[in-house]
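Record 1 of the preview.
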Amino acid sequence: FSYDRRLAQAEIRGSRAYAAALGRAGVLAAAEVAALVAALDGLEQELGGAPPAANPALEDVHTYVTQELERRAGPAARKLQTGRSRNEQVALDLRLYLLDVEPALLAGLRDLIAALAAFAAQHAEVLIPGYTHLQRAQPISLGHHALAYAEMLLRDAARVQDACRRMAVLPLGSGALAGTRLALDREALARELGFAALSQNSLDAVSDRDFAVELVFALALLGTHLSRWAEDWILYSSSEFGWLVMGDEYASGSSLMPQKKNPDALELLRGKSARQIGTLNQLLVLLKGLPLAYNRDLQEDKEAVFDAVDTALGSLAVAVGVVTTTRVDAERAAALVADPNLLATDLADLLVAAGVAFRDAHEIVGRIVSAALAAKRDFRTFSAAELAAFAPQLDPATVGGLTAAASVACRNQLGGTAVAQVRAQAQGMAGRLAAWPQR
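->
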């Protein structure tokens, strides 16, 4: 009960629908159905959406609701379990609970995507070095970088929605494992509880936790994405990079070194991903050796599922706070993106435009960059004679005119880092969010 008491609202909803179904099946008289529904309504209102208080004397949430019904509705409460097993009850309750959590998860994702899109639009013109292998590669827009994570989060949202779509299958009416002999109108039960389909096999229905694994996987991957983002922003707020300045609300000082500003919130987000991956592994290991049908081992699914949901909701809220309070040091970014070696690919493109095969151009530019590094010079200052020694096609005026801004601007295809593309993509995020399918 200390864990599954948060399923109380779902247990009440399922019991209310089942009482009505028993009435339609002729098991309960109309007065008994009315008494049970009134008692369940009263308990629901009394709880007000919160879980009941912990009580070590209670076995589980089913015991809690049963005792409350006996106290409030009298003898009719003892008939409610007719044809119904806890095996199907808990499968129903967990599905209902997670379907109810879906809007909060999507709202958290929506808020973070919107925050990243706003950050991208605001800083579209700030250019930073882009990296592969954590080595400087080409100049990109800081906004483009932020939108890369927004794309990951959009996929996370789609996975949550997809998992919940498959989750919306009614197991009630499966009994303990073999189905029920009662003439239950399962279609009516599904409509009343908001399910899109009925389970097709009672053995599977009471033992299935695929829906929980799928959602926890989606949240573990969300945590992984947040961890990658946190790692980038931890690096970019360090002295070695320095173009991000975290808000004081999400950082802390050192216990010894007074100059330090530690990115605590980002480090915790990075750490939480390990916890989410752990809950996914816990569920998979829990299920891997279970014979059909229900086994008490499945009681262990609740801690993992609830923790995955709580961690995801908390992480999303913190991430929104980090994004909205982080400042950008555009001067620091400009100093780092001025590295001429970031323009080596653009230099190769000049050779390609002059008719040189790209592999040859790649080798020529490699030699130019090596010579510039050895001489501690900017290759854009090379004279016509110096350039001609590598490639006569190179014009010193054109080479000297290479800039990070020009490099970014010419990548103006859909998906590119051009400022115009970044702004369009940031603005388009609102439309993409509005187009999310609703359950």
